[in-house]
Amino acid sequence: MSSTLPVPAAARPAPIPGLLDRYNLRERFGVFTYRDYRLLFAGQAVSAIGSWMQLVAQGWLVYALTGSPFYLGLVALARAIPTVVFSLIGGAVADRADRRLVIAAANGVAGLLAGVLGLLVWFNAVSIWHIIAISFFSALAFSFEVPCRQALISDIVDEKDVVSAVGLNSLAFNIAAVIGPALAGILIMRIDEGAIFLLNGASYAAVVASILMTRPGQCCGSSDRSVLSDTYAGLKYVWRTPELLALIGLMVITSLLARPYTQLLPVFASDVLQIGAAGLAALNAAAGGGAIVAGIVVAVFGTFPRRGLVIALSGVVFGVALSVFAFSTSMFVSMAAAGVLGLCGTYSSIGANTMLQTYSEERLRGRVMGLHGLTMMGLVPLGAMLEGSLGSAINVPTVLCAAGALTAVATLFIAVRAARLRELE
Question: For residue 165, what is the domain's CATH number?
Answer without folding.
Answer: 1.20.1250.20
